[in-house]
């Protein structure tokens, strides 16, 4: 097991990506484990992207969008909330710990929250990493 | 069966329907297969018994696309699939004439199909004609999942890895599924190609997870995917996991109520945020 977990961050363009940007410009330190992919809206996130991340060997997936009511497109995050809840249960069924998924809302003004989320999630994955052999790692090696 | 032949024959004869989708005993082989009956066809070949395993709703959109008014004979699970297709506007209710026959369970390889033990309705929830008695069935419990739920996460993955490893990516499960109607399946999409077409474990896992996820809140539990699978992968188990999640989170059992929309395509602003933790 590598010591450092690899995290895929799927961030919505309008809030969370801007939030991550703010964390950077405000010089809030956060672990460099998160690799960020910008998506147009959290509603764009197809759970297939999350499955792909795990079968590609990522240790965790961070998904973040605009707070409910603040979606740039009005409703994308409400659909995302339902889809992600179900996707999480599917991964749990096949043996991937639901703790490896972190779904949250970060607004463009919450740079500090973004940095806290990244730190918390990285720490959580480090705790999980040593003991649990992930489905992802096995799948990618075969 | 007499009543079915009489009602269907009458509707075909007086032009109320153009065609009727039903099961037929093939005279040459004695096997039961889905068949499109037309006016003047030998209705003695029409059959409804425990050999009628096929889900006719798989063929219904195509048959209905070629005819003004299409008749179909449905079991309970076929009807559940139809309810979802109607909600998704894949079919128009006005163009259909639906006959449902009370089903006592079907047989696969001489044994009562596993899905019949978990049956929630013996007649179709939508129908113009009901033949036989509608029975009160026990609610959906997804008991088959207990076996999985008792395992530790690592054991679960070991179990599923063994299953997924066998997948030959023949896509029989998709072809036979009434819910899989995308013109370009995500498994065949290129640019971006989300799912690697090779049969290595990671690619098979991608396919199986995507297939199961796409059935969330839609699967009618007709068991056709599992029956069609040449590698006997327990696909119903994954489907049941999805439907149990949907029942826990959104209190929906797919296909049982014609007035309920598939839960993942519903705009729900008052959902609790605890959904993000997978709880309600």
Describe the structure.
The complex is a heterodimer of chains A (142) and B (280). Chain A has 142 residues and is α/β, with parallel strands linked by helices. Chain A is built from five helices and four strands. In chain A, helix 1 (16-25) links the parallel strand 1 and strand 2 (34-39). In chain A, helix 1 crosses helix 4. The longest helix of chain A has 19 residues, at 111-129. Chain B folds into two domains: 2-131, no CATH class; 143-277, no CATH class. Chain B has helices at 2-13, 60-65, 76-87, 114-117, 146-149, 153-166, 172-175, 201-214, 224-228, 235-250, and strands at 19-25, 32-38, 46-47, 70-74, 96-101, 107-108, 111-112, 129-131. The model of chain B has no long low-confidence stretch (mean pLDDT 93). In chain B, helix 8 (201-214) packs across helix 10. In chain B, the strands form two sheets. In chain B, strands 1, 2, 3, 4, 5 and 8 form a six-stranded mixed sheet that branches. Chain B has a two-stranded antiparallel sheet with strand order 6-7. In chain B, strand 1 and strand 2 (32-38) form a beta hairpin. With 280 residues, chain B is of the alpha/beta class. The interface between A and B is large, with 41 and 49 residues.
